[in-house]
Amino acid sequence: MQRFEFTLKATDGKARLGEITTPRGTIRTPAFMPVGTAATVKAMMPESVASTGADILLGNTYHLMLRPGAERIDRLGGLHKFMNWDKPILTDSGGFQVMSLSGLRKLNEEGVRFKSHIDGSEHHLTPERSMEIQKLLGSDIVMCFDECPALPATEERVAQSMRMSMRWAQRSRDAFGDRPGHALFGIQQGGVTEELRGESAEALKAIGFDGYAIGGLAVGEGQEAMFGVLDYAPDMLPVDRPRYLMGVGKPDDIVGAVKRGVDMMDCVLPSRSGRTGQAFTRHGVVNLKNARHADDPRPLDEGCACPACRNYSRAYLHHVYRSQEMISGMLLTWHNLQYFQDIMAGMRAAIAEGQFDAWEAAFHAGRAEGDIPPL
Amino acid sequence: MQRFEFTLKATDGKARLGEITTPRGTIRTPAFMPVGTAATVKAMMPESVASTGADILLGNTYHLMLRPGAERIDRLGGLHKFMNWDKPILTDSGGFQVMSLSGLRKLNEEGVRFKSHIDGSEHHLTPERSMEIQKLLGSDIVMCFDECPALPATEERVAQSMRMSMRWAQRSRDAFGDRPGHALFGIQQGGVTEELRGESAEALKAIGFDGYAIGGLAVGEGQEAMFGVLDYAPDMLPVDRPRYLMGVGKPDDIVGAVKRGVDMMDCVLPSRSGRTGQAFTRHGVVNLKNARHADDPRPLDEGCACPACRNYSRAYLHHVYRSQEMISGMLLTWHNLQYFQDIMAGMRAAIAEGQFDAWEAAFHAGRAEGDIPPL
Fold this sequence. Notes:
Mean pLDDT of chain A: 96
CATH superfamily of the largest domain in chain A: Queuine tRNA-ribosyltransferase-like
Low-confidence stretches of chain A: none
CATH class of the largest domain in chain A: Alpha Beta
Number of domains of chain A: 2
Helix content of chain A: 40-55%
Oligomer: homodimer
Distance between the termini of chain A: 57 Å
Largest interface: A-B, 35 and 34 residues
Strand content of chain A: 15-25%
Strand order of the largest sheet of chain A: 4-14-13-12-11-10-6-5
Shape of chain A: globular
């Protein structure tokens, strides 16, 4: 069987071009992972997600354990079959979303007790149970169970939390066992404190993982603080393993993260924005609900190959948004996912050619121009 | 340019196999027309609608005149380009939906004044304006502007209404003019009274149309009464022109109508039901919200080629319905449209082979069996 392997193919400054091989296919890095929270990337058919160039999806352990349930998905043949996606899937550990979505949490060294946001039922999540659930789902890349405080938080709170997450990382590693073809990623914590990030990285490396995530960012600290951490955090992680920045982000966050040595990212932004009439383009964000598009026969982005841009006018996209038609979310989500994947493809090509800085300058110049003027 | 032409290719009892040629393509009859009310078949990409075998869509004049507006669609290149559908489109006249959807109507010989259900703005619709709007939309098959009372209604009310609709039919014919490649259909009224249906048919034939619709049914009279009318109404219309039964219907309505000599139908049922978890299958209606599907790995209908049936389990369809995910409506609408088109294809093949009765018996037998038993 194909082993889980990461190959670093080129670097340009700190930016890295690589490839992750798995039994379910190859993931080109830098990679953006669309989020398929409840076994669907909202408003998209999985074939359409694949057509944008996505090599891997993210699934949410928290949502799937509550509905339809991990044991049920296992009985039905695993998450890939259930949701008709045969490429790799990364699942998060559930920890972050227990904190952000569920009610009545009780956290201790053992794990976390919480009530479902769907039906109020009680659940217990531990490193061991998270590993079990992610195995039942059939995840290709499994994330350690961790805990992370919302920022700002006191350094003491961040340190305590990080150290517990490191003990949970060891328990996750022990519970995961040996599963050829499947990967377990550790998650660096430590907030915005370099010393704590370093301590966390050392703890994870001592345990040993197939990949390393940078956690606890994109939780309210702002881009400047995030980039401040990314100026040093990726360098603390092994050069020969993929580095995954969790929950990021906006296009310029993604570009800034890749520039600083990040290989993988995920975010709900392209799909969530697509459902609220917002499109990400080379010219920045375009809001299709704006009346200025009502008579505009031009495509959203004449340089984009997605169906929204190839087959429809801005006037149509405005009309279906205003009419609350499902095709509005379908087309704009598709466009946004295409745009995010086009950014990744552009960065991969630029790194291969040693032209990352020039690519980045062009990326920012296009956005600075702003959207095309009204007719 | 290709002319609008109807060719009757075979009959089996009263059931008819035919073909309508138009500059935008051929419509195989009996034909079912999916409804694209607001320039979209809800929850579907137009390519997907075409893939089910639909040769023609219906667009709603009432909705499109209010939003985004007929003049705007004309400026943008017409409805086909606007909604990315290059095959034929039939538009209704707006009359029926003014009656069923708008507020504060005032009806007289001239036409009808009403307030938009969207923003309360005032509008005036007449035979002449309806012809103008349908021309601005670029409709291939234009419907006469008519009026129809909800049933039950007194015979006197039905007769008065029918006679005004016949005067409006003449005004529609005059306003439509000569538009090669485009068709104008007259609409027979007369409720459930054979004499009035006959009077209406004679009036329409005296004017002369490219096709003839049977209107004023499927408005609450029930299947038995509808079939009662269909036992004689199609025979009153010219044999060499297509016959279109408006707003019908459920699968057994459609089969019963074709059996009685109807060539074309339209209905929102497959798409509307798809968005509420209801699937039409060879075994009857299957309600995906039912908990009995939660662990069922079997397809919705193992004989169906749509993506919902090819790629997903009932358990998945149940899960995404319960989770209110958009893919639920997307998949079930696709399935329902595929099933409706499969019925039409089955009837066309059966008529060609002179096997309509056998096909109809098998159709009813499958439905009588009911859905497959729970696991």
